[in-house]
Each structure stands twice: as structure tokens, then as C-alpha cells.
């Protein structure tokens, strides 16, 4: 007679989404080993996920039926103080947050990309690339934009937001932070292969959204919901802009994959900081 198999006990992780425990006093930006293992009351709003991103502008049902994978949506926070809407993420809203983490040794340089686009069509990268936090500071001051990959690794509330969105979309969710110097542009026009949510945390960005490009080898009819990103596209090849929103702190912009976009910081006096939350890579409803 075969021996009886022991039933394995499922151990639940000690994570309470939107729990009622007392708030942890740790700072939100911290090395992973210092992060608390329980989501406390102070993290509750981040874990509302998509409803929190949309606010009063649209219900989740309306967003999924009217906008998702269909058309862009610009949400202006007119009912609350614009700069306060993303208050749980405000410690990411200035370049100094990144510089402090770099100088403390908590973000390796391989998690950063730098680029600039001076003619509106061609992306450049620095040569040689930065080799120290001081190099990154210097290049930013010279007009190079910074892409900070996956900042949720250093920010607990942002990580909770990502977890909530992954649960709601049933898909992996990624985040990049973009820091653009005053009066500069980082990326050339292009489309992505992901659904994109832009959270403007600091400063402002002037976006242009376009449906198609005559310079892309992909046929025009296949440029809707593409499976792959486009690469850089000449600005003169773009169809007329379908939307040109100027995002200020607190605003949200959503656009489907395949929408061509470019976004200079036209404010000569302030840097711009925004998060790009992306999902649904090579997936569809």
C-alpha cells in the first residue's frame, strides 16, 4: 500500500491590502531591506489602482468600454489642487530624489538611460556614457533627459500601485520615470507596444499625439494596436496631431499602443518629471 502523501500547508504572505493597521513610520523611498512587509493605512490609496488613477473623470467600466485600446484620454484635475493629486508620490517629483539615491549608492547607473532630441526627430545618447552620479548631474544640467527604469524598486507606495494594477489588468505592469531638463526634449517621435498611462508629478510637458507616420515600413492600416514598437520617426512624416495636451502636475494622460507621441518640456525655467506606467504588452482584450 502506497504511503499517504502529506498535504502541503499554504502559507499566506503577511500583506494586507488597504489594511487598518497603524501606519509605518519608514520613509517611502528606501532600500528594499528596510521596507515594511505589511501594507498599512498610509498605502491604501495607492492600492486602489485604476480607480485612483482615473479619479472622478471616468469609472473603470467607462474607461474600459470607451477608451482602453481605442482613444487617448487626458484627465485634468480640476476638482482638487492639481499638484496635490499624486501626493503619495511627491517624493519622486523632483530630480533631486533620483540624485540623492544615486549618490547614496541605492540606484546603479545601469538602471538609467540618458538621451536628448535637439532637432525634434533624432535621438542622441551621450558618448561616453555617464560613469558616476556626478556625470549624471552634469549631463542633466547640459540638457540630457534621464530615464529611470523601474523606480518602484525604491518606492514602496509605487510598488503597491503596480501590484494593484497587475491584479486589475491581469498583466505585467512596468514603470519608468522621465526627468527632462528645462526647455529640452528627450525622445524622438515613436509609438510603443504597450498601453501607456502618464502621471505628471512635477513641472509640465507639452505632448503631441498622432495616428500614423508615412515613414514607417509598417502599412498605415497595421499601425493600430501594433505588436512591436516603431523606433524613431521623423517629425515631418507624422499625420496631423489628434491631441496636443499640456500636462501639469496632477494630470493623467492615457493613450493606446500604436499612438505616436513626443513631448518636449517647453518650460525654460523648470524641469519636468513624469511616470510612465505601461501594460498589455502583446496582449489584447
Shape: globular
The count of DSSP E runs of length 2 or more, i.e. the number of strands, is 11
Structural class: alpha+beta
Major sheet characteristics: 7 strands, antiparallel
Rg (CA only)? 20 Å
Element-level helix/strand string: HHEHEHEHEEEEEEEE
Please indicate the percent range of residues in DSSP E strands (runs of 2 or more). 15-25%
User: pLDDT below 50 for ≥5 consecutive residues: which ranges?
Assistant: 5-26, 34-45
Report the oligomer.
single chain
Number of helices: 5
Query: Strands across the major sheet, in which order?
Result: 1-9-5-11-4-3-2
What does this structure look like?
The structure is a single chain. The chain is an alpha+beta fold and 285 residues long. It contains 5 helices and 11 strands; from the N terminus they run ααβαβαβαββββββββ. A 7-stranded antiparallel β-sheet has the order 1-9-5-11-4-3-2. It has a two-stranded antiparallel sheet with strand order 6-8. The longest helix has 14 residues, at 156-169. The chain is globular and about 45 Å long.
Amino acid at each position: 500500500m502506497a504511503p499517504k502523501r502529506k498535504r502541503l500547508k499554504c502559507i499566506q504572505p503577511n500583506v494586507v491590502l488597504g489594511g487598518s493597521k497603524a501606519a509605518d513610520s519608514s520613509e517611502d523611498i528606501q532600500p528594499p531591506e528596510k521596507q515594511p512587509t505589511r501594507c498599512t493605512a498610509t498605502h491604501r490609496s495607492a492600492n486602489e489602482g485604476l480607480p485612483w488613477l482615473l479619479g472622478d473623470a471616468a469609472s473603470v467600466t467607462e474607461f474600459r468600454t470607451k477608451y482602453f485600446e481605442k482613444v487617448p484620454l487626458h484627465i485634468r484635475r480640476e476638482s482638487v489642487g492639481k499638484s496635490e493629486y499624486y501626493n503619495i508620490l511627491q517624493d519622486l517629483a523632483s530630480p533631486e530624489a533620483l540624485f540623492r539615491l544615486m549618490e547614496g549608492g541605492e540606484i546603479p547607473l545601469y538602471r538609467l538611460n540618458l538621451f536628448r532630441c535637439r532637432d525634434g526627430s533624432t535621438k542622441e545618447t551621450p558618448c561616453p556614457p555617464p560613469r558616476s552620479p556626478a556625470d549624471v548631474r552634469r549631463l542633466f544640467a547640459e540638457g540630457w533627459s534621464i530615464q529611470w527604469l523601474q523606480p518602484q524598486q525604491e518606492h514602496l507606495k509605487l510598488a503597491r500601485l503596480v501590484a494593484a494594477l497587475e491584479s486589475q489588468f491581469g498583466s505585467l505592469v512596468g514603470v519608468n520615470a522621465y526627468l527632462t531638463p528645462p526647455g529640452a526634449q528627450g525622445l524622438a517621435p515613436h509609438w510603443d507596444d504597450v498601453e501607456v498611462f502618464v502621471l505628471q508629478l512635477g513641472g509640465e510637458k507639452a505632448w503631441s499625439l498622432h495616428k500614423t507616420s508615412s515613414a514607417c515600413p509598417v502599412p498605415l492600416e497595421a499601425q493600430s494596436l501594433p505588436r512591436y514598437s516603431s523606433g524613431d520617426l521623423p517629425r515631418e512624416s507624422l499625420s496631423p496631431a489628434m491631441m496636443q495636451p499640456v500636462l501639469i502636475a496632477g494630470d493623467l494622460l492615457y493613450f493606446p499602443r500604436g499612438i505616436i507621441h513626443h513631448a518636449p518640456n517647453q518650460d525654460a525655467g523648470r524641469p519636468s518629471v513624469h511616470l510612465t506606467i505601461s501594460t498589455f504588452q502583446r496582449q489584447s482584450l
